[in-house]
């Protein structure tokens, strides 16, 4: 090989090396996301956990989408009209699934119908209750063909509502409303969304690998995606480490971004090398019910001081003056029903215990959702009851969600985190119909959901509901 050819060969090798390096940075970088729990399903109609909703938000696209300003904008739909109670959505040209098949109007119709079939057990089906016939279909009282949704042609989705729902366009941006190709779903024979071979994607990314044994998921850019929310990175690699916490992986540089549990926030604050952004979307609520009479509930409510238990608020928590986190945009007026008045509370308890056989406050246990940061707060509240009311109340943690018990107020005393993960109506539904009277609920604390990320990451925007992160905005420099 002569000198000229050698020089050319070296130059070409340098160019290839530079190109390969560039593929790992900038618009071709891979983002490493660490999660505390891996998804059980990537079926958008039944997704419920944070990791499931996050991934579904990125591998599917609804008629609408939430942008990085929090606005709901057209997505798979190029435009829409609203006349009376009827929406008409016109799909964009050349929409495709990740396998190259066209995305058509029937796919959106089938997806929403699936969400409302009772056998699907979609956790967010209530978001679609404004659709004509939806509650009746969901309960099984009416057949699916009575639902107010149809596809007049391949590019048009028609949805008729029974009432005007201001949150409906937002509901259409959430995973429960994502398209589902009927033929592909039927051929999956009960395994839809449960493994890579039974998942076909329509969003900015597609599922390239799902290794359950090694707790790993890889999303790559969906080259068939023709919408407005194109991915700015080559892929998102998602993993759960059995040996390290998500915080340890962030601090060590083994991951770029992660959802951070409140119990790990002190580590992040102390380290100061990880950036964070948060959204307050969880309310910790004291529920009073069961066999406790209204007067006892009133006394207990009147002996809860935010000045006392507020001293124990850990990082990521704040005293709640309302049931409604700011992300819901609701009036934050105090609804704790009674003000702190231990003297009056003692008088009420004194009269009530006279009715009991042994003239003592009944043996009672407060059950709370397991949480290291909240335990000191709960202990302080129970301790104040004991000090002021001579009530000896045990506390017991549980890893169960107990959502039914909260809604029915069937436990004597319990403290639960309630997430504002969709709309105001859906949020208040979790508390039961009479949540605002009878001394049955007291908001205790607001908790933030936090995303931590490295200095290489840009464009992080958290939406409060339905998956938190859209990786079509996030860039790794």
Structure overview:
It is a single chain. By secondary structure, this protein is α+β, with helices and mostly antiparallel strands. The protein contains 14 helices and 19 strands. Strands 1, 8, 9, 10, 11, 12, 13, 14, 15, 16 and 17 form an eleven-stranded mixed sheet that branches. The chain has a four-stranded antiparallel sheet with strand order 4-5-7-6, with helices on one face. Strands 2-3 form a two-stranded antiparallel ribbon. The radius of gyration is 26 Å and the shape is globular.
Task: Write a brief structural summary.
The protein has helices at 3-23, 50-59, 105-116, 134-139, 168-171, 182-187, 246-252, 265-271, 294-301, 306-309, 342-353, 375-389, 403-408, 424-429; strands at residues 30-34, 64-66, 72-74, 77-83, 86-91, 149-153, 156-160, 205-211, 216-221, 235-239, 257-260, 275-288, 317-319, 364-369, 393-398, 413-419, 441-453, 457-458, 475-476.
Relevant CATH superfamily of the largest domain: Periplasmic binding protein-like II
Number of domains as seen in the coordinates: 2
Annotated CATH topology of the largest domain:
D-Maltodextrin-Binding Protein, domain 2
Radius of gyration: 26 Å
Number of helices: 14
- Net shape: globular
| CATH architecture assignment name of the largest domain | 3-Layer(aba) Sandwich
Q: What is the mean predicted local confidence, pLDDT?
A: 89
Q: Report the helical percentage.
A: 25-40%
CATH class of the largest domain: Alpha Beta
Largest sheet descriptor: 11 strands, mixed
What separation lies between the terminal Cα atoms?
40 Å
Number of strands: 19
Sequence stretches where pLDDT stays below 50 over 5 or more residues: 7-26
Beta-strand residue percentage: 15-25%
From the helix content, strand content and strand pairing, which structural class follows? alpha+beta
């Amino acid at each position: 090989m002569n000198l000229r050819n050698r020089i050319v060969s070296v130059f070409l090798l340098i160019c290839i090396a530079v190109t390969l390096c560039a593929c790992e940075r900038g618009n071709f970088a891979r983002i490493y996301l660490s999660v505390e729990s891996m998804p059980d399903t990537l079926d958008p109609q039944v997704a419920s956990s944070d990791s499931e909703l996050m991934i579904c938000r990125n591998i599917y696209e609804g008629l609408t989408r939430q942008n990085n300003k929090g606005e709901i904008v057209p997505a798979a739909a190029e435009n829409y009209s609203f006349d009376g109670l009827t929406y008409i959505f016109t799909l964009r040209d050349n929409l495709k699934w990740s396998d190259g098949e066209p995305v058509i109007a029937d796919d959106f119709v089938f997806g929403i119908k699936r969400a409302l079939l009772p056998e699907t057990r979609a956790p967010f089906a209530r978001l679609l209750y404004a659709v004509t016939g939806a509650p009746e279909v969901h309960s099984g009282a009416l057949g699916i063909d009575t639902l107010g949704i149809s596809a007049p042609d391949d590019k048009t989705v028609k949805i008729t509502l029974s009432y005007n729902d201001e949150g409906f366009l937002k509901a259409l941006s959430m995973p429960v409303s994502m398209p589902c190709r009927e033929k592909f779903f039927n051929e999956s024979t009960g395994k839809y969304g449960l493994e890579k071979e039974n998942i076909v994607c329509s969003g900015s990314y597609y599922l390239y690998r799902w290794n359950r044994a090694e707790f790993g998921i890889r999303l790559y850019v969906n080259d068939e995606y023709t919408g407005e929310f194109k991915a700015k990175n080559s892929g998102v690699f998602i993993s759960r480490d059995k040996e390290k916490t998500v915080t340890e992986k962030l601090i060590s540089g083994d991951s770029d971004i992660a959802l951070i549990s409140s119990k790990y926030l002190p580590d992040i604050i102390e380290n100061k090398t990880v950036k964070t952004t948060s959204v307050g979307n969880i309310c910790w609520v004291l529920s009073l019910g069961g066999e406790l009479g209204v007067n006892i509930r009133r006394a207990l409510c009147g002996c809860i001081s935010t000045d006392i238990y507020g001293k124990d608020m850990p990082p990521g928590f704040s005293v709640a003056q309302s049931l409604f986190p700011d992300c819901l945009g609701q009036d934050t007026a105090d609804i704790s029903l009674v003000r702190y008045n231990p003297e009056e509370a003692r008088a009420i308890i004194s009269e009530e215990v006279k009715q009991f056989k042994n003239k003592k406050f009944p043996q009672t246990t407060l059950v709370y959702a397991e949480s290291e940061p909240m335990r000191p707060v709960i202990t302080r509240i129970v301790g104040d009851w004991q000090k002021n009311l001579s009530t000896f109340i045990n506390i017991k943690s549980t890893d169960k969600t107990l959502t039914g018990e909260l809604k029915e107020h069937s436990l004597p005393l319990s403290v639960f985190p309630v997430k504002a993960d969709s709309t105001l109506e859906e949020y208040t539904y979790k508390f039961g119909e009479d949540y605002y009277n009878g001394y049955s609920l007291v908001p205790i604390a607001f908790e933030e959901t936090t995303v931590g990320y490295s200095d290489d990451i840009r464009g992080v925007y958290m939406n409060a509901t339905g998956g938190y992160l859209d990786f079509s905005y996030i860039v790794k420099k």
